TrEMBL record:
Protein name in UniProt: Omega-amino acid--pyruvate aminotransferase
Spans traversing the lipid bilayer: none
Cofactor(s) this protein requires: pyridoxal 5'-phosphate
Species of origin: Actibacterium lipolyticum
PANTHER family: ADENOSYLMETHIONINE-8-AMINO-7-OXONONANOATE AMINOTRANSFERASE (PTHR42684), BETA-ALANINE--PYRUVATE AMINOTRANSFERASE (PTHR42684:SF1)
EC number in record: 2.6.1.18
Keyword Transferase: yes
PROSITE patterns: AA_TRANSFER_CLASS_3
Length: 442
């Protein structure tokens, strides 16, 4: 089909694209020009099934009328209000709605603009919390190998994806890492939580013995690691991590930027696994990916530690120009209402078994060495081409786009996380097309 020239820019050189092979893209651009429901429309008029909810964020699908109208109305009513020393109603309404949706005990909300900013905020709050309590020696941060916590300096320091870290210098000091939870020899082709690996949480005891608990401020983990290729928490792992953090007085941060807002069939992974962290980072699904916004949820204990001293003084010297932005807040309220009114979290839980069986039907496809899934997330790991890591999966991504499905790749892993509105027929199309792609790969 011919390109619609009004939707193709005449100069691609100015835009330095993020996380993109820029030279390859600009030789053969892949332009999305509109979206509705489960599908994108390309510049050449094709429909492309969204197998990734954009970037793990469009959980309610595209062009949701309630969200679109909320943004339109808010833009005409109050476009911007300063976030420092001033407020506007919808930020408080959204904070209350988030508190009501969150696990019991997560009582306070600090707004940001993205998952990366939410992580930076949570790390700073954790360190400042200990200082407020007279334990200022607790400054060390513990992340996890293969973890992804955004792209700011704090996030890549506690993160553990090598390519995101290696060219940016020495990063933050005082950071250590737990081992990742991926044990392919023991947990290959697992459906849901793996049986083996809870003992990996005990590595925190080794780090405590090395540095001393009195120096450690926080441990941050994704309950289920998404961007690194869907690494699932073994049974008992998160419970053990919670137990050890409590034992040693360490703040436990769950990075729920991906797992929040129904991705696992519950509002949050903390609900799904019945493990309560001290801080929780969110973004993406908070506004259905429509407009930038993030939020950090905190327990009352953490919040109240700052509410000391004279009332006219600022308690936490941190925030962003767009924290609780009026238009973002309106989008967030409409998004949470959409999830509730359409029962999308429950729908995701109900659709998960069909999704699981469809994914695992690819076990015999060419080059497949592992399949992992939980909720409406799935990963298909491919055997890499010798001497050319990532090339096989990237080729699969390009061929999938040509055949009308959007997938995401990280390394030689295909990751999928469709909108929660997905129907069985869409799952069949996604998996069926992916089989065609895999069978045609070299």
């Amino acid at each position: 089909m011919a390109l619609d020239r009004k939707n193709v820019p005449n100069d691609l050189s100015a835009f330095w694209m993020p996380f993109t092979a820029n030279r390859q893209f600009k030789k053969d651009p892949r332009m999305l020009v509109s979206a509705d429901g489960m599908f994108y429309k390309t510049a050449d008029g094709r429909d492309v099934l969204d197998g990734t909810a954009g970037l793990w964020c469009c959980n309610a699908g595209h062009n949701q009328p309630r969200i679109v109208e909320a943004i339109r109305q808010q833009a005409g009513e109050l476009d911007y209000a300063p976030a420092f020393q001033m407020g506007h109603p919808k930020a408080f309404e959204l904070a209350s709605a988030l508190r009501d949706m969150a696990p019991k005990g997560m009582d306070h909300v600090f707004f940001t603009n993205s998952g990366s900013e939410s992580v930076e905020t949570a790390l700073k709050i954790a360190i400042a919390y200990h200082r407020a309590r007279g334990e200022g020696s607790r400054t060390r941060l513990i992340g996890r190998e293969r973890g992804y916590h955004g792209v700011n300096f704090g996030g890549i320091s506690v993160g553990g994806i090598v390519t995101n870290r290696k060219v940016f210098g020495s990063l933050l000091t005082g950071v250590d890492h737990l081992p990742h939870t991926h044990l392919p020899g023991e947990n290959t082709f697992t459906k849901g939580q793996p049986e083996h690996g809870a003992h990996l949480a005990d590595e925190l005891e080794r780090i405590v013995a090395l540095h001393g608990a009195e120096t450690i401020a926080a441990v941050i983990v994704e309950p289920m690691a998404g961007s690194t290729g869907v690494l699932l928490p073994p049974k008992g792992y998160l419970e053990r991590l919670r137990e050890l953090c409590t034992k040693h007085g360490i703040i436990l941060i769950f990075d729920e930027v991906i797992t929040g807002f129904g991705r696992l069939g519950s509002a949050f992974a903390a609900d799904h696994f019945n493990v309560l962290p001290d801080l929780m980072t969110t973004a993406k699904g908070l506004t259905n990916g429509v407009i930038p916004m993030g939020a950090v949820l905190a327990t009352g204990e953490i919040h109240d530690a700052f509410m000391q001293g004279p009332e006219h003084l600022i308690e936490l010297f941190h925030g962003y120009t767009y924290s609780g932005n009026p238009i973002s807040s309106a989008a967030g309220l409409a998004t949470l209402e959409t999830y509730r009114e359409e029962g999308l979290f429950e729908r995701a839980a109900a659709m998960a078994p069909y999704w699981e069986e469809a994914l695992h039907s690819l076990k015999d496809a060419r080059h497949v060495v592992d399949i992992r899934n939980m909720g409406l997330i799935g990963a298909i790991e491919l055997e890499p081409i010798a001497g050319e890591p990532t090339k096989r999966a990237f080729t699969a991504f390009l061929k999938a786009y040509e055949k009308g499905i959007l997938i995401r790749t990280t390394g030689d892993i295909i990751a999928m996380s469709p909108p929660l509105i997905i129907e069985k027929e869409h799952i069949d199309q996604l998996v069926g097309t992916l089989r065609e792609v895999l069978e045609a790969l070299d």
